[in-house]
Amino acid sequence: MQVAIFILIVLVFVAVSGALARLVRVPLPVLQIAIGAALALPVRGLHVEIDPELFLLVFIPPLLFSDAVTAPKRELLALRGPILDLAIGLVFFTIVGFGYALHWLVPSVPLVVAFALAAVLSPTDAVAVSSIVDKNVVPARLMHILEGESLLNDASGLVMFRFAVAAVLTGSFSFAAASLTFLYAVAIGILAGVVALFVAAKALQLLNRIGGVPAEAQVLVMVLLPFVAYLGAEHFGASGILAAVTAGMLTGGSGVFRFLGVSARMQTMSLWTTLSFVFNGALFILLGLQLPDIIGNVPPGLSGRYPVIQPILTVLALTLCLIGLRFVWIWIGDTTARVLARLRKRKSEPFGLRIRLAGSVAGVRGAITLAGILSLPLAMPDGSPFPARDEVIFLAAGVIICSLAIASLALPKIAHGLVEPGEDPGAAEERLARVGAAKAAIARIENMAAAEDGDEGEVPGALLAAADSIVAGYRRRIAASDEADEARAEAREAGRMELELRLAGIEAERTAVRAMFRSREINDHTMRALLTEITLTEALLKGWQARK
After folding, report:
1. What tens digit of pLDDT does each residue of 276-293 get?
2. CA-to-CA distance for 160 and 178, rounded, in angstroms?
3. What are residue 46's phi and psi, to 5 degrees?
4. What does the CA dihedral 378, 380, 384, 386 come to, rounded to 10 degrees?
5. Hey, what's the torsion of the CAs at 76, 78, 80, 83, to 10 degrees?
6. pTM (2 d.p.)
7. Cα–Cα dist 307/301, whole Å
8. How far apart are alpha carbons 360 and 357 in whole angstroms?
């Protein structure tokens, strides 16, 4: 009963945080961590012990799958060079640089343990990045690189973290064995994602052949997909995170959605949107619940002469070290790409200083870092305590908070003015796509009317009226996308008036249906069916209005 109440409390505060973030103008992850920390205050607060493996299983696969499904595949493929450079190269660079810096700054932390902390700090948090980085003020190219990096570096960082922990436990490390294991984890992880997607497609295809299967059954297959991919990869000792990301990246282009009915497609999209919001919020609140106990117990190895100031300065120095390492690596990669482009006589798009700095600050850490560091063993094989375990857990929690705070405060100022005013390239592409789709629809409708004319010698009046009405709507859509300001303004005004009339008609329909229910002319089942159709139509119209 206590677990159920705890879950309900977390869900309530997830909903509350969504409203508060708009009022206090604080990034949602920061606000949710603060709420979790407040709930975990001593005496009358909430406390929860989290199993790191269960934490990873419940939250990470669906969240990364959802982010991968919505990621811009074309842009990520075009930017695969810098993305892989950050997702793999920067991880190894961070492990070496940060590991030695930590061991020098805190000598009580053994070097191998410092490498383990560096590895688990390497992955950036995809959820936190998308929540903090405003896509309207950050150049699209940089945003795509950050998204792609955060989807892929979890696998490389956690795999290297396992190697470092194994080296601590066994006292030995083989670079050749580690390299082979890393390649195995990546290859089998990708394969597991592909296989899970294939199995899901076959399951949906089978449900279609059976016929009459509820849409909810099809939706459930899509919900289980990331978990199947994750568990399948983990079973074979590979990267479950990479498996979930692979399944999400391939879902859109695999054609799996063609096996879903219309109702199932709508329910799937709505459910994933809701789950993403709920899981994101619950993840950061749970993260906040852990922090007071971790930060409140400063390990003796970090206290020194100044028990309060020294731990804070250590965390700040390590966070700035991570930012500095990212800046150096981005600068090296950018410079190398520019030199190679000149040698190949190709055009290059180098980053400026502010974009490099924005990309460095945006590398925030989050849930995967905390879950990974909490999974450290309590004891060595001989029964002795795991070396410096409390110190690295404290430092990891501190770096998470510090990186989020720095990004929240500094990134908006750094990124301000980086995007030049003008039409968003994505909006222009969408406008052209709308025009092309509308023209194709007009051509199809006119061909259908002409075919009727050829078969019967005369176009029926009802068909002609219907065709004219539909074509007129498509022509208004084309006019609304016209580059001429006057034509667009006139078409939009006509569209606005039509929209108002349609919405007024929808409201009248809703009122009439409710009146018929109150007078018992229809039952509640009929009322719900009609109101669902009316609400769907209204949602489509208002969605069109919002895009305009």
Report:
1. 888 888 888 887 887 777
2. 8
3. -100, 145
4. -50
5. -60
6. 0.78
7. 10
8. 5
